[in-house]
Structure formats: C-alpha cells, structure tokens
Specification:
The complex is a heterodimer of chains A (about 190) and B (about 425). With about 190 residues, chain A is an alpha+beta fold. Chain A has helices spanning about 15-25, 85-110, 155-165, 170-175; strands at about 40-45, 45-55, 60-70, 115-125, 140-150. In chain A, the strands form two sheets. Chain A has a three-stranded antiparallel sheet with strand order 1-2-3, with no helix packed on it. A two-stranded antiparallel sheet of chain A has the order 4-5. The radius of gyration of chain A is 20 Å and the shape is globular. Chain A starts with 13 loop residues before the first helix and ends in a 10-residue tail after the last helix. With about 425 residues, chain B is an alpha/beta fold. Chain B folds into two domains: about 15-145 and about 355-420, FAD/NAD(P)-binding domain; about 145-350, FAD/NAD(P)-binding domain. In chain B, the strands form eight sheets. Chain B has a five-stranded parallel sheet, covered by helices on one side. The two termini of chain B are about 20 Å apart. The chains are: A alpha+beta (about 190), B alpha/beta (about 425). The interface between A and B is medium-sized, with 16 and 18 residues.
C-alpha cells in the first residue's frame, strides 16, 4: 500500500500498456511481432551481435539506435575475454525482463519502488559443452535469482510483484519452456 | 401467434421461452419464469441433472457444503449442513427440485440447432422444432474436456483419458499415472489414484489454492459471509481474467479434508511443472513450478487476509479460532523437467486440463474468436438470448449451484422486460401441447 500522497511513479506508462492490451485483443494480427538480431564473427570466440529493426503493430519498426553486444569467452577458456559470455547475456536478458516486469506490475498495483536490484546465478557443468560426458546437458542446471526490493509495500505484496513478473515474462517463459529452434545455412 | 394449438403451419411447437438444459441453472430459471407467468419449456438431452448422472467419477462429492446448495424456493433441510453430497445425492436433490417446482422438462430432447427466426428463435430438436421468442442457454460450462494439442504426441502404449471418462482407479492399468492439471479435478483424481497404489505425478500449472476449513469454518462459508461470492462481474477489475481463473483446489469429503499439493506430496505424489511439450516420446515440463506454487500461496494468503479483516470487523474474532497461515507449498529443489514416456514408468495420462462448453448447435453469430458466447452478465448479444451457469457470469458464485438463483432472478427480470417492450408483436398465448 502506498503511504505517500504523491502519485506512484515508477516511470512505466501503464495506461499505454493497458490500452495496447485492449486494442490488441481486438486486433490480434497487430500483436504479431518478430524480433531479430544479426551476428558477425570477428575472430576466435569473439563475435558481435547487433539489434536494430523488428516487426510489430503491422509494420517494420526500428530502435532509436542500433545496439551492439560483444560476446566472447574468458581467459580460463583460452579465449581473450573481449565480451560477456553468451550464457551471461542470457542471464542479463532474464534479469532485465523480470525487472521491467516488477516495475510495470508495481505501477499497476500502485506500489512506489525505491530500489530494485537482483543477483543471478546459474550453475553449469561444462563437461557438457566440452563433450566430455554425454549425460551432462550443455545448458544451465538451474538459475537462481535473488531480488532486493525497497518499496512502499508489505513483504507479501513485494513477493507478489516478483511472482507476477515471472508469470508475464517473455524471457522467463523462453527459459522455462521448450522452444523449437530451426537453424539453416544458406 | 394466436393459435391455441401447438402444431401450427409446418408442425412447429410454440412457447415463449425455451430453456436448454435441465440442470440446476435451467431449473432455477424455470422457477423464476414461472413466478412471472412466462410460458416456457426446458429441453433436456437426457434426464434432469444429466451431466451429474453421466459425466462424473464415482467418488466425487459436491465441492460446496450442503447448506450452500440453495435454489430459488428450495434449500437444505437435512441434519448435515456441513456435509458434501455424493453424486447420487446431488442427482436426487436436483430431481426433487424439478418435481417441487413442477418444471416443464422435456427429457430425451436434444437440441440440434438454435437460430434466429422471425422475431425470435427456432430451436430444432430430435423431437420436433420449436419457435420461441426468448431462449436461455443453460447447458453448462463443462460439456467437453479440454485436451491440449500435445496429447497427439503421446506414445500409443500409454492410455489417456479425460475426467469425463474416468470413473475410478480400477479402470487404470497398474503402474504410474501422470495427471496433467492441479485444479479441483486434477488434485482429487491424483489423491484417489495414488492411494490405489498407482504412483502419481501431477503436472502443475496455474492453480488456486484454498484450505477446506479455515478458523473452524468452511472456506465457502467465509467467502459467502464476507461477500466474496457475491462480487459482481461489473465490479471486478478484469472480468475476462476472472472468468478464466481455474477452479478452487477443493474436495468434498466427510472428513472435510484439505486436498492440496502439500497433502498430495505427503502421501508420495510427485509434483512437476506444467506439461510444455512431448518430443520424441519425451514429455517436457516447464521450469516454472516454484513460481506457480508461490503465486498460489500468495493469492491464498490474500484471500485469508480478506477473511480475517472481515471477521474482525464483524465481531467473529471471539467466536472462531485465531487467524493463522498454512505451510507454503513444498517444492523439491530441482523438480524433473522431463519424463521419458517410452520407458514404461507412466502407463496412463489423465487430462485434468479443464472443460469448455459445447455450442456446436448454436447457429447464431454470438461466439467470439475463442468460441465463448459474447454476453453482458448473461444477456447475450443476440436480443432475447440469455446465458446461465458459466464462471463469473454475473457473480463470483455464478458457476456454483448457489449462484443460479440470483442470476436467474436478474436475467428473468431482463427477459420479462424484453418481452414487455416488444410492442410490435402480441404476447404469445399459453404454452401449448402441455401433457
């Protein structure tokens, strides 16, 4: 429950989101988005990905600017560590997605956030990716996310924010559920 | 319209209002129509209380206590108000109601088509065609078991069945059973099947956890007393979402037992995430189990908080035991994410994945893109058409036997005023062909 008289402002335009939900329920074709990224191998395990254009609301869309993500592997992998590891980018994606959700749900529930931070840790047995043991999977054996949230709300209401954010998170869904992946060479 | 005979023209039967379905909802509507002297008949594909007779498993009891099965002009007078009716008792209760109100039921009359005709509706059945001015759809919300698309990928060695086909554990092969779904149906079947010696795994998606008894009183008593069940469809924030909330995880038993995920794990049932896919004979489960359980625990505690607040404000704190909270749902550290269905561990899959209504006979464009009737609190978009007995139709209790009365009252009021305003057509005469 908000304890201040000031209107709650987490910087999320909830009115626009609710409006979009209503509009897209009536026009489901406009809700069809395509997200895109491109990647270029630079050297060794170093590659650079960029995102700029995407499709949605029935038209091609563009970010305000092109964003790039450098990915590499650290020196313990005999690499040169010129960027984050791809699996760390996955963690960053999950972290950002859940945190955006926390802010949006808080706004919707009239909860003023003062600070939100989280640490993420994912376990991995690298014998999987090294092909040393075929019983070991390549990916994470689990992800642990720990939030610290300071807000005008009871501990249960804060827990509910984080729970609802998971329920509505795209990256959480992508990680917790299987997705068909098709990789082609042209 | 002035004919005093039932057979007119090409042999159409006539009445003012056709009610489709002689379950509790259709009967409650019949009572309200009779109070207003509106001629009507109830068309029933089988017998009164047909779904209760033919589509329920053997051990099922009502999920609401006896006192709560209140129908207009009818209530519980026995000596066990807190008990839960068995299916034969439920059928008898609804039959007695039909008798008590002399409901004009035509049994074994299956509606094959409802379509607009003239200023009303043509209702075709296997026993003749009716013409009426108004029609009430009271065929219920649970005509078809919803089975997810992944069912097609289940290896053929595994038997699959829906809750409508399930009667008792003896039907099932010995060996493991995967129950998909953890709402009222899934948890009750999981409990019974596991106790029969067949090890059960439950795939858990979104669910609504509530205790059977809280502070010495049935949860339904609290929700009834505190007005939660009377909450109206036009008062909730998001009615679409409210109408899609899964059924309360409840069971009716003489011991008033709580059947929830903790009670299931305590007898050895395994919990696993929502069934996400089946690939090459391997079932994949979502990694969201922990959050699904956290959401359900938090929502339960919010409901209990509402109840505690109401109890304090209404002077119950000295009459009932003090507030408390239940243990959070226990989830193992790393629940498995896959089961190889070709290994023989799982012999049967039961799809407790919900139900939906069957409107295949409704030839009016009143369905939305998801096949739901478009309506405003039961007043269907098509003039003179009404809907009963679906979740949160007009109130949170709309899907309960106890909700039929208030909804029937409201909708019959609307229906009567609709008939009254139709000045272009004279009010039809008494129902014809009465036997």
């Amino acid at each position: 429950m908000a304890t201040t008289n000031n209107p709650v402002n987490n910087g999320v335009n909830v009115g626009a989101l609710l409006g979009a939900r209503e509009a897209l329920t009536k026009a489901p074709e406009a809700a069809q988005f395509k997200w895109r990224a491109t990647v270029k191998w630079v050297n060794g395990t170093f590659s650079r990905s960029t995102v700029e254009g995407f499709y949605g609301l029935g038209a091609e869309q563009k970010h305000k600017t092109q964003f790039t993500f450098d990915a590499d592997h650290p020196e313990v992998f005999a690499s040169e560590d010129r960027g984050a590891t791809p699996v760390e980018l996955v963690l960053a994606g999950l972290a950002s997605c859940l945190t955006a959700g926390v802010a949006a749900v808080a706004q919707l529930r009239d909860i003023q956030l003062r600070s939100v931070s989280a640490t993420l840790e994912a376990g991995m047995d690298i014998r999987g990716i090294l092909g040393a043991d075929t019983d070991v999977r390549n990916g994470f054996d689990g992800i642990k996310v720990t939030y610290k949230i300071d807000a005008d709300a009871s501990p249960d209401d804060i827990k509910a924010l984080v729970a609802q954010s998971q329920k509505r998170s795209a990256v959480y869904d992508i990680i917790t559920n299987p997705t068909n992946v098709t990789v082609e060479v042209k | 319209m002035t004919s005093a005979s039932g057979l007119e023209g090409r042999g159409r039967l006539r009445t003012t209002t056709i009610v489709i379905g002689a379950g509790h909802a259709g009967l409650a509507m019949s009572w309200c129509l009779a109070q207003r002297s509106i001629d009507h008949v109830i068309l029933e594909r089988g017998e009164v209380a047909n779904s209760w007779r033919t589509e329920r498993w053997d051990s099922l009891r009502l999920l609401t206590p006896n006192w709560q099965s209140r129908l207009p002009g009818y209530g519980y007078e026995g000596d066990d108000p807190d008990g839960f009716r068995t299916m034969p008792e439920t059928i008898a209760f609804i039959e007695c109601y039909a008798d008590a109100i002399s409901a004009p039921v035509r049994t074994s009359t299956e509606v094959t088509s409802v379509r607009r005709s003239g200023d009303g509706y043509e209702v075709a059945t296997n026993r003749g065609v009716w013409q009426c001015q108004t029609v009430v759809l009271a065929t219920g919300a649970c005509n078809i078991s919803q089975v997810p698309a992944v069912a097609e990928a289940v290896p053929s060695a595994i038997a699959t069945l829906t809750p409508m086909q399930y009667r008792n554990p003896r039907q099932l092969a010995d060996g493991g059973v995967l129950v998909v779904g953890a709402s009222a149906t899934g948890t009750q079947i999981a409990d019974e099947v596991h106790r029969s010696g067949r090890p059960v795994t439950v795939a858990v998606g979104e669910h609504v956890r509530v205790p059977r008894v809280y502070r010495g009183k049935d949860i339904q008593w609290w929700m009834d007393a505190a007005g939660v069940l009377d909450e109206r469809y036009d008062e909730v924030d998001d009615i679409l979402r409210a109408r899609n909330v899964p059924s309360l995880q409840l069971a009716g038993s003489p011991e008033r037992r709580t059947v929830d995920l903790n009670s299931l794990t305590s007898i050895g049932v395994k919990l696993i995430g929502r069934l996400a896919g089946i690939n090459g004979g391997k079932a994949q489960f979502s990694g969201s189990l922990r959050n699904q359980c956290a959401l359900a625990d938090l929502k339960m505690n919010r409901l209990l908080g509402t109840i505690d607040e109401w109890a304090s404000e209404n002077g119950y704190d000295n009459k009932v035991s003090p507030p408390h909270r239940f243990e959070p749902t226990e989830v193992e550290g790393s629940p498995p994410l896959g089961i190889d269905l070709t290994r023989g561990e799982i012999r049967t899959i039961i799809w407790a994945t919900g139900f939906r209504p069957d409107y295949s006979w409704l030839h009016e464009s009143v369905l939305d893109h998801k096949g739901r009737v478009r309506h405003d609190g039961g007043v269907v978009e098509a003039p003179g058409m009404y809907l009963m007995g679906i979740p949160f139709l007009r109130r949170r209790k709309s899907s309960l036997i106890d909700g039929a009365g208030d909804d029937a009252h409201d909708l019959s009021t609307h229906l009567a005023s609709y008939l009254g305003h139709r000045t272009s057509v004279p009010r039809p005469e008494r129902q014809v062909l009465s036997r």
